[in-house]
Amino acid sequence: MTRAVLKFSSEDCGICHKMSFYDEKIAKELDLDFVNIKMQDTATYRKYRKVLLSQYPDKADMGWPTYIICDNPEGNFDIVGEVKGGHPKGEFRSRLQAVIS
Q: What highest taxon heads this organism's lineage (predicted)?
């Protein structure tokens, strides 16, 4: 079973860009796969769209970025939790740890 962090972000989001300096590194330190999904990258977005829409059917309450932690994101996925919005490195790590423990 693969547990992954799916990061839904936008190219023109400053906070998303700032988080990219450490979000993937923290996910890998916690032994999680990491998939960066920019809304502008239609092929990648289409591949993981079903995960996002199961959590946010109309995308109304999404944060920028939105990190969805799920098992088996490529197939019959199961959402474990999420972290929304920008956070300092330490806080992001503890929020991610809280979701997976």
A: Bacteria
Tell which wins on pLDDT, 33 or 63.
33
CATH topology for the 3-100 domain: Glutaredoxin (3.40.30)
| Buried b / exposed e along 54-68 (16+ C-beta atoms within 10 A) | ebbeeeeebbbbbbb
Grade residue 2 by pLDDT with cuts at 50, 70 and 90: confident
Residue 94 to residues 28, 47, 52, 62: CA-CA distances in angstroms? 14, 28, 22, 20
d(CA 78, CA 93): 21
Report pLDDT for 1: 66
Strand, coil or helix: 37: strand
